[in-house]
Write a structure and sequence with these properties.
heterodimer; A: mainly beta; Ubiquitin Ligase Nedd4, Chain: W; 2 domains; three-stranded antiparallel sheet; B: alpha/beta; three-stranded parallel sheet; globular
């Protein structure tokens, strides 16, 4: 699976457009393809509990609220206790 | 090409060439001193220079998710739960080479919206939320506020980046979430609830018209409800976060169910302590998430030096998440963390670190003595701190962040002043802080030097050396004047003259009440200063004095929009006294309308959005069990009234008095007609230049106003030691300082004057027609409150200072004087001495603040044409320094036009 830099753990986000490749130290575009073997960054869109309902928008299935609370696919889930790959 | 204002004047033989005390060299002269930072700092600075301001939804997502799940909870606990959840879920990011870590959001210049404060302004323009916001007066300032198009500003959308509020870039994948989160707060935000209730005020209509016509610049309670204050780092430094949780738990258990004689809010202490515990737990989780990230990086890093540093960062964070710091490095990291934490709790500009050289001195002294750290390592940390502080963005509307703040967030630090024993407080660490301001010149922290006669001469000379780099800091602030103001304003709340000496600058130059507290380190006690007061600049925001004069001359009607802003006075204004009386009447009508509306906004804020983290840091919230909203702070009389455009108002009144009333050379009707016709010139917006010098005559102009225009321009002007104009300033100041006491904050205290312009002189000038001093329509006002209008101060800096000190500055929170000096005027050690003598002379005359732009005007013009070559050029705007390329054009033009002193 080809990942964009911004979907990898080796990407250090500088701003919305670019960041550092932690392995090479170079500034790279956030949307550029990362080299093979880079690690997938936990994000809602990679989580089993994320149910997409529209482009980039969905709900979090483990939300205890009714209706289920919103989620968006691009949110980083490194600190989320219920992230499930 | 149409003739410019400057050419028209030259044709008439009028000297207004924007240079004084000599002639500038023909070629561009750069600043004399150009030191460089440590290599590590240079690398991080290079990243900063490439960084775009970026916003995301992480914090608001988790905040909203938790908040909405607990709608039956006690408000303060509900908010604390939301804050804890948000802090606990922030994604950590550590950049290679960083030593002082943690960021507001996971970008180098990251920030995020707070829709619980205001949700309407940043949504898509076609959205109904935006349209609704547009109907309110508060969005008018956005139309007159523009960011510079360079640097980190995202003024336009590109690729997958959406520009929001004219400054922040957001990934397009996040925009639907932003809108959905925003809509959850409709009718619930401080903005919406405040708007609902402010309409109950009988004079609400006047308030809205003030905002729509930019008589007043912006609302207070939901824009930047906190800030312009000094933070207090003492309690975490003394007790550590575990110690504070233990303290709050014991106090909570002690007061639970006890009113202790306070039948109104006594029992609230239980919930307040509960909230304190929750928020502290959130802060700890945030720190520990960073520690975990540092450990992860340590495990994968191949470079041995970097690997070791990641380990040291992790160890530091793991320690300070629970305990009081033991070393200078740990203490520095802790105050950095606290600072960012407070800024994440609320939309804040001007949360000043205060006198951190004195706060951190105990650790510095003991570490240096023990050989745990060298002065060079300390200098490097001080340089790194400048990268951290300059990277702090605040997410708010374009009108607020652009029109008022010019993108700056005013994390001003103070040096000098007196210690708790009344002696000079300057210490060795403060020398290094000043040096770091020179070796790593970045806009933040802007430095305030609390000038006192007891400060060492070499300390003051070092300060002038820093100024000569052109960085726009340190500003000289008068310690004695500020202490007098502190005692007068906060004496009724118990401030003693000794406690007054702890004061520091909050925001750009808002004097803020502080206190001394005993810090213990390895058995030694140090008295350290820290903030003890509520936010300032939260009362009545930025009243445009020239616009009020326009309303007075035109019977209450705005001449740009033709809206009747205030009821007609129907006076003929036959005498100067009648004009002056009606001016004051209008001022008071509008101030009272704004006073009430802002009190309501802040009242909503304190009920639903109160500060918990900032509160627990400030004396005496922890001991009292009351947060900011229940007068837990030691000093609460902090709300003020801000003015803008003083010099143009004074000059206009002087011109009217001279030409119409005293000499009777022209009628008021003629002057009003000339104003409406802009003296035959195009409007500034038409030519997209906001400097008076560049204004152009209309092609169809028949020169019928020229004679009158020249007369008005040659009438007495403030800044020349001319009693005719200066007397008008004195009369205004004496009235203003007294009148402010008639406006009361929601906390029941009288207000006081705050006289700074920040960047409002650009946006407010943009919305103001020509004025009787000869200023043209749409052009920027004079900056600050005591700076002269460009080209009008012709008698040298000492004459300007004489004019500025005809009134007692200790009756006001501040005053502001900026002077532009050509680098060649202060060359060499002799130049530094002259600059110090000039500054000292102003302090001795009783001036409160003076600062200098040491720059060649030709360089500014060049930078406007070729911004790509001047990414690092910094200028002093008003009470702050900013990168030239990040400043809006109206203020750039005014900076170019300012009188340049070629000698002093």
């Amino acid at each position: 699976m080809t990942l964009a830099y911004r979907d990898t753990r080796e990407f250090v986000p500088v701003d919305a457009d670019k960041g550092l490749d932690r392995l090479t130290g170079k500034m790279v575009q956030a949307d550029a393809n990362a080299p093979a073997g880079y690690t997938k960054l936990p994000k809602c869109k990679f989580c089993k509990n994320y149910q997409e309902e529209a482009t980039n928008m969905g709900v979090c299935a483990v939300s205890t609220m009714e209706p289920k609370f919103m989620a968006y696919g691009d949110m980083i889930a490194v600190t989320c206790e219920v992230y499930a790959d | 090409m149409a003739r410019t204002f400057k050419q028209v004047l030259a044709d008439a033989g009028i000297s207004m060439d924007f240079e004084a005390c000599g002639r500038a060299p023909e070629t561009i002269v750069d600043r004399e001193i150009k030191p460089e930072p440590h290599p590590r700092v240079e690398k991080l600075k290079n990243i900063f220079m490439q960084t775009l301001s970026t916003a995301n939804n992480e914090f608001p997502y988790w905040y909203t998710r938790e908040y909405m799940a607990h709608d039956s909870e006690i408000p303060v606990v509900r908010r604390a739960r939301a804050l804890k959840t948000a802090f606990s879920h922030l994604t950590p990011v550590i950049y290679p080479g960083e030593k002082l870590v943690m960021h507001k959001a996971h970008y180098f210049r990251g920030s995020f919206p707070m829709p619980w404060l205001s949700e309407g302004f940043y949504v898509a323009k076609e959205d109904e939320l935006f349209q609704d916001a547009l109907k309110r007066g508060s969005t008018s300032a956005d139309e007159h506020s523009k960011f510079g198009s360079g640097g980190g500003n995202v003024v336009k959308s590109f690729n997958k980046i959406v520009s929001i509020a004219g400054k922040f870039g957001m990934r397009q994948e996040e925009v639907p979430a932003l809108l959905k989160l925003a809509k959850m707060w409709v009718g619930k935000s401080v903005d919406d609830l405040g708007h609902k209730y402010e309409q109950k005020c009988p004079d609400y209509d006047v308030k809205e018209k003030c905002m729509r016509n930019i008589v007043c610049m912006f609302d207070s309670g939901y824009t930047l409800p906190q800030g312009r204050e000094v933070i207090n780092y003492y309690y975490p430094l003394e007790y550590g976060f575990d110690g504070l949780i233990k303290m709050a738990t014991e106090l909570r258990d002690k007061v639970a169910g006890n009113a202790d004689g306070d039948g109104m809010v006594g029992t609230n202490r239980l919930y307040n302590y509960e909230a304190v515990i929750l928020v502290l737990e959130g802060i700890q989780a945030w720190i520990l998430n960073y520690a975990k990230e540092a450990r992860r990086l340590e495990a994968i890093e191949k470079d041995a030096v970097q690997k070791k540093e990641y380990g040291e960062i992790a160890a530091c964070l793991e320690w300070i998440a629970h305990n009081p710091p033991r070393t200078f490095y740990e203490a520095f990291q802790m105050i950095e963390t606290i600072h960012l934490g407070v800024l994440n709790e609320d939309a804040i500009s001007g949360m000043s670190p205060g006198r951190i050289g004195q706060v951190l001195y105990p650790y510095f002294e003991q570490d240096v003595a023990a050989g745990r750290i060298t002065e060079d390592e300390v200098l490097e940390l001080c340089e790194l701190d400048r990268v951290v502080k300059t990277s702090i963005d605040c997410f708010a509307s374009c009108g607020v962040v652009g029109g008022v703040l010019s993108g700056n967030t005013f994390n001003t630090l103070s040096v000098g002043g007196l210690n708790a024993k009344g002696q000079s407080a300057a210490n060795r660490l403060e020398y290094l802080i000043l040096q770091a301001g020179m070796t790593n010149p970045m806009p933040q922290s802007t430095i305030a030097l609390l000038y006192d006669e007891k400060l060492p001469e070499d300390f003051l000379l070092l300060a002038t050396k820093v100024i000569k780099t052109g960085c726009g800091y340190p500003a000289f602030m008068n310690n004695e004047i500020a202490i007098k103001f502190m005692c007068a304003q906060y004496g009724p709340e118990g401030m003693t003259p000794q406690e007054a000496t702890a004061w520091a600058i909050g925001g750009c130059l808002e004097s803020s009440p502080c206190c001394w507290l005993p810090l213990h380190l390895n058995g030694k006690e140090y008295m350290i200063p820290g903030g003890a007061g509520q936010p300032t600049s939260v009362g009545i925001h930025f009243m445009s004095l020239p616009k009020i004069l326009e309303l007075t001359l035109f019977n209450g009607q705005d001449q740009r929009t033709k809206e009747q802003v205030v009821p007609p006075h129907n006076k003929s204004l036959a005498t100067y006294e009648e004009l002056w009386t009606e001016f004051k009447n209008y001022w008071e009508i509008m101030c009272h309308a704004l006073e009430k509306a802002n009190n309501i906004q802040h009242d909503i804020w304190r009920k639903n959005n109160m500060a918990v983290f900032n509160s627990l840091l400030k004396p005496d919230c922890l001991s009292k069990g009351h947060l900011i909203n229940e007068l837990g702070y030691r000093y609460n009389a902090t709300f003020n009234v801000e003015s803008a455009g003083t010099a143009n108002m004074v000059n206009s009144l002087a011109a009217l008095k001279k030409i119409v009333y005293d000499d009777k050379k022209a009628s008021l009707a003629d002057i009003k007609a000339a104003i409406l016709d802009n003296f035959g010139f195009k409007d500034a917006h038409e030519i997209n230049s906001f400097s008076i010098a560049d204004q152009q005559k209309r092609e169809d102009d028949d020169r019928k106003w020229d004679k009158l225009h020249f007369m008005l321009l040659q009438a007495p002007k403030y800044g020349n030691d001319d009693p005719y104009a200066d007397e008008i300033l004195r009369e205004w100041e004496e009235y203003f300082c007294e009148d402010c006491k008639d406006y009361k904050s929601l906390y029941g205290h009288p207000m006081y004057p705050c006289q700074i312009s920040v960047s409002t002189h650009g946006a407010m000038g943009s919305a103001c027609r020509a004025t009787p001093d000869g200023r043209l329509s749409g052009t920027t006002f004079a900056d600050a409150s005591l700076s002269a209008y460009p080209g009008t101060d012709r008698n040298g800096p000492f004459a300007l200072m004489n004019s500025a000190t005809v009134w007692d500055h200790s009756h006001s929170q501040n005053s502001q004087l900026n002077i532009k000096i050509h680098p060649s005027a202060i060359r060499g050690p002799e130049g530094a001495k002259k600059l110090l003598d000039l500054s000292r002379a102003y302090m001795r005359k009783g001036g409160f603040h003076v600062q200098y732009n040491v720059v060649d005007t030709k360089m500014l013009r060049d930078a406007q044409e070729k911004p790509q070559e001047y990414r690092e050029l910094m200028v002093r705007v008003a009470g702050f320094t900013q990168y030239w390329v990040e400043i809006g054009k109206s203020v750039q033009d005014e900076l170019i036009a300012r009188t340049e002193y070629e000698g002093i």
